[in-house]
Amino acid sequence: MRSALLKRFGGWIGSWSGPVEMAEGREGVMQLDITPIFDGDALEVSALMVDSTGQVLMARGIGFWSLERDGRVCCVIYGGRIGFTELQEAPDDPDVLALSGPLGDGRTLTVLYSQHDGGLQMTSSTSEGYKGSVSVRNIGQLRRRAESESPPA
Amino acid sequence: MNPLAPYLGWVGVWGGEGEAQTGDPAIVRTEFSLLQGGTALCMHFEACDPGYRILYHGVRAVLSRAPNGDLRGIAFSTIHRGFLVELTPDDEGVMALTGVTRGGNRVFVTFVQEDQDNLLFTAFWRPSNKVPAPDELPRMTAPLRRLFPMKFEKPPGPPATQ
How many angstroms away from the CA of B153 is the closest CA of chain A? Predict the structure, then answer.
């Protein structure tokens, strides 16, 4: 029997990649892997962002998604630049996963995932203060990675 | 110094027979592996009944360097769900992790390296607002041995044709 988590996110499992626009105007490529663990009791979500040459690791992060008793997603996450925190699901459209939580320096991290046209978009941003002005934003437009259909030469 | 360095020698698969917190016998399998280009250490832990039908406890944790240089981690437990873990100072050859779950329990997990191919695993939890746990608290323990791939004198394969 599929877990409630897999019923909701089973279509997102797999490897995704695509261009990412990072803060400071930098551009690169993002790889996102979503993998079920413990029979779908949780999902491991791993992200790597490299520059357009593929040689420079610009950012990395990993997290575990699981469901709370009330059905909301809870996520523990670390990022190479942001450190460690817990994110909670915030209300949003049904096809959007919005996760938000505090960083150690008083800022708030928000990560949005949404699927449309067969792709997966991930947006992460940090905000600070009462007005929540966005200070950093990364946007990844991801497509499912496909296997080459032709055998290697 | 890379804070993962003391544990790089643990990368591999470990197994053993131990005792669950209930006192029941438990089969334990643990794997240490590197993730994301060696920037993070993954610890995957499974404890099940001797018939391999019931997963008593599964834990997957990822340790990495925090921006301040300390080694910290994220963990998912089939019992405690997701929580953050800290590496507490301890002797060389010891990995002592602790974290507070959303349910309000403080979890303690310790691996002690007895020699190159033997670890001793211990874990327990208690309400986080209690004083340090007395030794009589139930805990899961298991001696773990490194698992080596079986060696063949000749690689198995189809019989040679005349």
Answer: 32
Q: Supply the DSSP symbol for B151.
A: P
Q: Which residues of B touch A60 (CB under 8 A)?
A: 36-37, 39
Asked if residue A16 is part of any domain, the answer here is: yes
Dist. CA B135–CA B141, nearest whole Å: 13
User: Does any CB of chain A come closer than 8 Å to the CB of residue B53?
Assistant: no
Cα-Cα-Cα-Cα torsion B142, B143, B149, B154, nearest 10 degrees, comes to -120
ipTM score of the complex? 0.89
Question: Tokens at residue B111, please?
Answer: 């691996």
Query: Which residue type sits at B156?
Result: P
Tell me whether residue A86 is exposed, middle or buried, using C-beta atoms within 10 angstroms of its C-beta: 0 to 12, 13 to 18, 19 or more: middle
Specify the pTM.
0.90
A75 contacts in B (CB within 8 Å)? Answer: 82
What confidence tier does B135 reach under pLDDT thresholds 50, 70, 90? Answer: low
Q: If 0-12 CB within 10 Å is exposed, 13-18 middle and 19+ buried, where does residue B127 land?
A: exposed
For residue A68, the domain's CATH number is: 2.40.128.20
**Where residue A134 falls among pLDDT bands split at 50, 70, 90?**
low
Total domains in chain A come to 1
Angstrom distance (rounded) from CA A151 to CA B8? 36
Distance separating alpha carbons of residues B109 and A128, to the nearest angstrom? 35
Categorize the per-residue pLDDT at B130 as very low, low, confident or very high, splitting at 50, 70 and 90: confident
Locate B65 and state its tokens: 């360097």
The answer to whether position A147 is within a domain reads: no
- Residue A152 is assigned to a structural domain of this protein: no
